[in-house]
Structure to design on (383 residues):
């Protein structure tokens, strides 16, 4: 306190900085909801390791149904929707690795802007539920709820033309994707994705990737700008 | 505890990145042959610093004296821009040496892993440093079953 009197400017500045938090804490207690802490701030540019074969992150192949196994056995990178410049899909967008994504977070919506193909996800965090009848879209219908330092995102209605990776792991229109964006520290998010699809998999399975903050900005991208590869692609399977 | 888990996550991220290939919109093995590496020296005729991959072209003189114009594909411009590439890193008239892997269809086309510039610098055209052969590592870790 003596030091404070000696440096009144510092004291005043400290009070100015601390006061809003004191008021915020007070209002939470007054409202009878001490649990309702503000969610962590995940705004920024992030990137996860590029994961071209999701089974490598899992440690083994997913628990295929006979139908899922047969589909995977005959699938070929030649048919990857990305070779046709189609959208990357919700989970694969996170795994795109070499191209970062930007999180723009507000109280009612959590947006992920992908550099890859300049696509985006809108995750509603305003308490709504999924619509009763969801029409399949490239990134599905996503709703999110904060669980402490973790945003839990529930996505359904994902277009079955998207793949889960480059290696050819597919899914059906019954895919139910649950992701957990857990803030580890200011520069790290632990991302866990759980895939549930009774047509392709016998049980839900999950992968976890570290997502690191990037000292960059997302940049322009247009897959069709100078696409020259398609004419040279060859099937990798007989 | 939090610090420990953070370090582990970052280490895992680093290790995974070290083996990361550079594919914007197609797998390596669907277009290029990892068993057909090549090293060619030639004169730059054109540079296309565009999406989804950069392309540049070299006039390469063969043993028979004939000049063939080769096309080389690198990583996405965004990715290699962050590694120091610019639109004019390769200029028409530059004589450079390229290491890469030839296209499976036999065209005069190759995936470029590194380029040795006229000033002696060797630049990765992929996701890593000079010592990291992006397409080379990609050929072994390209998600193939």
């Amino acid at each position: 306190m003596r030091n404070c009197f000696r440096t009144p400017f510092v004291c005043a500045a400290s009070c100015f900085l601390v006061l809003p938090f004191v008021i915020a804490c007070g209002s939470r207690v007054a409202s009878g909801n001490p649990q309702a802490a503000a969610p962590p701030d995940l705004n920024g540019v992030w990137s996860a390791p590029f994961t071209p074969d999701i089974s490598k992150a899992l440690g083994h192949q997913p628990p295929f149904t006979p139908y899922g196994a047969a589909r995977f056995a005959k699938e070929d990178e030649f048919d990857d929707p990305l070779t046709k410049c189609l959208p990357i899909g919700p989970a694969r967008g996170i795994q795109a690795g070499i191209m970062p994504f930007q999180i723009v977070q507000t109280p009612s919506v959590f947006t992920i802007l992908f550099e890859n193909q300049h696509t985006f996800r809108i995750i509603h965090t305003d308490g709504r539920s999924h619509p009763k009848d969801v029409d399949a879209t490239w990134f599905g219908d996503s709703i999110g709820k904060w669980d402490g330092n973790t945003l839990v995102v529930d996505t359904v209605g994902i277009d079955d033309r998207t793949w889960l990776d480059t290696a050819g792991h597919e899914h059906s229109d019954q895919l139910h994707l649950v992701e957990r964006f857990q803030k580890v520290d200011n520069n790290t998010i632990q991302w866990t994705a759980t895939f549930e699809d009774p047509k392709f998999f016998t049980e839900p399975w999950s992968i976890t990737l570290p997502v690191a903050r990037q000292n960059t900005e997302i940049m322009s991208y247009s897959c069709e700008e100078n696409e020259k590869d398609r004419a040279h692609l060859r099937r990798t399977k007989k | 505890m939090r610090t420990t888990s953070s370090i582990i996550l970052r280490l895992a991220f680093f290790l995974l990145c070290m083996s990361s290939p550079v594919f914007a919109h197609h797998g390596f093995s669907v277009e290029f042959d990892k068993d057909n590496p090549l090293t060619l020296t030639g004169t730059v005729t054109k540079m296309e610093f565009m999406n989804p991959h950069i392309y540049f072209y070299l006039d390469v003189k063969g043993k028979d004296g004939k000049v063939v114009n080769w096309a080389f594909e690198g990583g996405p411009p965004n990715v290699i821009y962050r590694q120091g590439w610019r639109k004019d890193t390769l200029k028409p008239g530059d004589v450079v040496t390229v290491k890469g892997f030839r296209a499976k269809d036999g065209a005069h086309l190759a995936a470029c892993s590194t380029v040795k510039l006229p000033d002696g610098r060797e630049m990765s055209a992929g996701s890593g440093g000079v010592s990291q052969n992006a397409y080379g590592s990609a050929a072994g870790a390209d998600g193939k079953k």
Notes: Residues 32 and 103 of chain B are 4 Å apart (CA to CA).
